[in-house]
Specification:
The chain has helices spanning 5-13, 18-30, 32-44, 49-94, 107-131, 141-153, 168-175, 177-194, 219-236, 265-278, 288-312, 349-359, 362-381, 396-400, 404-415, 428-433, 435-448, 464-469, 479-482, 489-505, 517-526, 551-559, and strands at 158-165, 200-205, 208-214, 240-242, 245-247, 251-258, 285-287, 315-324, 329-341, 345-347, 389-394, 422-427, 451-457, 474-477, 508-512, 530-532, 540-541. With 576 residues, it is α/β, with parallel strands linked by helices. The structure holds ligand C2E and calcium ion (2 copies).
């Protein structure tokens, strides 16, 4: 720039700070009179030394005093420039906004005022970008977390409510982003007009608003607050008009308290969001502590009780008949574990098997099931049921046990039954977990002579090429696809494909969970003849199985069926 030519020239030649450059120039400038006097006296060749000395001294004193004063004033006049430079530097390096005066009107004053305005403006823009949600202008999740962190640093108890607009995504899909954002803004405005002073409204997620505020640490205060929030929600949840549509917004709310529900801002935000997701129209406000603490407690108690159940003999096996409708008889049974809890009564395996898995208790329980089932096979072999095959479920963890094979052999030998009477059921998901282990274990079980069934088939996405190589002999079609197969074209497509697949691979196929004749009719016509489900029999204690369903009933049922497709199996597998 042309205006800066001297400054530019100086900057290149003199390696001094700006302030020293000015001082140096001022120093030289103010010494001009002294230099001029010295040159004049030298040129005049005067012989009066006393005159000469006094003139020089006077000039020297005047120059030094003048210089000092000039430098001092100049230095002071430079202060605005230096202060502005320092303020900008601090802002750039630490993003700290330092105040600058704004009321001076000369150029230096203008420099300070403009710099101050620019910094404030910049800071607001950056804050907007980083900490505010652009739809509603409310603090975003980053800002909310930092506000919570401040509370936590002070160990100050607070409550965080998350209000979810359940239909946000649906409104967005149906009417576009602008309308969805408009709905959020309207909701935010309503909430902010009803939220008491001292509380902060924020928007931590696309479909979420948050209310943050200090509270007491006791349960009564929490309950009172929950009540107030419910009132606020009720009054805020009226109809929302967006464009030409009127919405009846459904709000889900979750509440978490610090320090009761978490130690970090992130954990508390997660807790409140999770609680909101668990709420329903019937229970629109869920306290994190309620459900989770109760669930954790109940699980812990169940875990303790489960340990006792193993030693106290609280388990029993029920058996659900497996029928072959074409042969009109019971051909097998699935052993299903039951836990008679001394206080809770019957506890469902879906509730305690996951706990047994997680705690490792599944090992002793699984051993007991194997032994018990084999004993039962022995007992039945002398009954009218004859040599039926009994299926035992294995959980994923049991299947990974290195000693599994030894246990199976031990149970069979202990009861004196042949391996072909026993079938092992493994879910498709468990079979998919570790391919090489599955392959090895299946081969070993096949060599032993035990049957292998893949349970809950269709739900786990096993790949065809993988399945083809596995030595197993039965597919159990998951209840999900069997239920109402007669009415759902999707289930029909899946069942038809699975039946065809079993045929192609030479596998037996069984439909589980049949509850209605129509389901049997559809599947029987497609060639599936083996069934298990409430339509035929519920799981029952071992000694009741003979009384569940008789030949006469099976015959009657079969006569109602249309003739089935008679495509023979392409090849029979050597497994089992
Ligand atoms: P699963 O192996 O899929 O067992 C079938 C479940 O469906 C059983 O539930 C059975 O009672 C139920 N069921 C049978 N027919 C019908 C029907 O027509 N309609 C309906 N709605 N349900 C039907 P259960 O006995 O509650 O067992 C649940 C799960 O617990 C079993 O699912 C199995 O995964 C597991 N399990 C049961 N016993 C054992 C065991 O001894 N060891 C292991 N590892 N898991 C077991
Ligand atoms: Ca099963
Ligand atoms: Ca199943």
């Amino acid at each position: 720039m042309r205006d800066l030519w001297f400054y530019d020239w100086m900057s290149r030649r003199v390696r001094l700070s700006y302030r020293l450059k000015i001082m140096t120039v001022a120093f030289i400038g103010t010494h001009m009179p002294l230099i001029a006097v010295a040159i004049y006296i030298a040129a005049a060749h005067t012989s009066d030394w006393s005159d000469f000395v006094s003139t020089v001294l006077t000039t020297l004193v005047a120059t030094v005093a003048g210089t000092a004063l000039t430098l001092f004033v100049l230095d002071q006049l430079l202060r605005p420039v230096l202060l502005t430079a320092r303020t900008l530097e601090i802002y750039r390096n630490a993003r700290e906004v330092r105040a600058l005066p704004r009321h001076y009107t000369d150029e230096a004053g203008l420099l300070m005022a403009c710099a101050a305005d620019t910094i404030v403006h910049l800071e607001q823009t950056l804050d907007q970008i980083e900490n505010r949600d652009d739809g509603t202008g409310l603090p975003n999740s980053k800002q909310l977390l930092s506000m919570m962190a401040t509370f936590i640093a002070d160990r100050a108890p607070f409550a965080l409510a998350i209000v979810r607009f359940t239909d946000y995504q649906r409104v967005k899909t149906a009417y576009g982003k602008d309308e969805a954002e408009l709905a959020m803004s309207l909701l935010a405005r309503r909430l902010s007009s009803r939220v008491a002073e001292g509380k902060v409204l924020a928007r931590p997620g696309r479909a979420e608003l948050a209310v943050l505020g200090p509270t007491d640490e006791n349960a009564i205060a929490h309950a009172a607050l929950a009540g107030r929030i419910r009132d606020v929600l009720e009054s805020a949840a009226g109809e929302l008009a967006i464009g030409s549509v009127v919405l009846e917004p459904e709000l889900q709310t979750g509440l978490a308290f610090y320090p009761a529900d978490g130690e970090s801002a992130e954990a508390l935000l997660d807790a409140a969001s999770a609680a909101a997701l668990r709420s329903s129209p019937a229970a629109p406000l869920v306290l994190h502590s309620d459900a989770d603490r109760r669930a954790a407690q109940s699980r812990f108690e169940l875990e303790q009780d489960l340990r006792r159940a193993v030693t106290d003999d609280q388990f029993t096996l029920y058996y659900q008949p497996v029928v072959d409708l074409a042969a009109e008889r019971i051909i097998g049974a699935e052993a299903l574990l039951r836990w008679r809890h001394p206080e809770r009564g019957m506890v469902s395996p879906t509730e305690f098997i996951p706990i047994a898995e997680a705690t490792g208790l599944i090992q002793p329980i699984g051993l007991w099931v194997l032994d018990q089932a084999c004993q039962q096979i022995r007992n039945w072999s002398d009954s009218s049921l004859g040599d039926i095959r009994v299926a035992v479920n294995l959980s994923a963890r049991q299947f990974l046990d290195r000693d599994l094979l030894r246990h199976v052999r031990g149970a069979l030998d202990g009861a004196g039954v042949t391996p072909d009477r026993l079938e092992i059921e493994l879910t498709e998901t468990a079979a998919m977990a570790d391919h090489s282990h599955t392959r090895r274990m299946f081969a070993a079980l096949r060599d032993l002579g035990v049957g292998i069934a893949i349970d809950d088939f269709g739900a786990g996405y096993a790949s065809m090429s993988y399945l083809r190589k596995l030595p197993f002999n039965k597919l159990k079609i998951d209840r999900e696809f069997v239920s109402h197969v007669d009415a759902s074209s999707e289930s029909q497509a899946i069942c038809d494909a699975l039946i065809a697949l079993s045929r192609g691979l030479g596998l037996d196929v069984l439909a589980e969970g049949v509850e209605r004749e129509e389901e049997v009719r559809h599947l029987y016509a497609r060639g599936c003849t083996v069934f298990q489900g409430y339509l035929f029999a519920h799981p029952v204690p071992a000694d009741e199985i003979e009384h569940t369903i008789g030949v006469a009933q099976l015959r009657m049922l079969r006569r109602k069926m249309a003739p089935r497709e008679q495509a023979p199996a392409l090849r029979k597998r050597d497994a089992g």
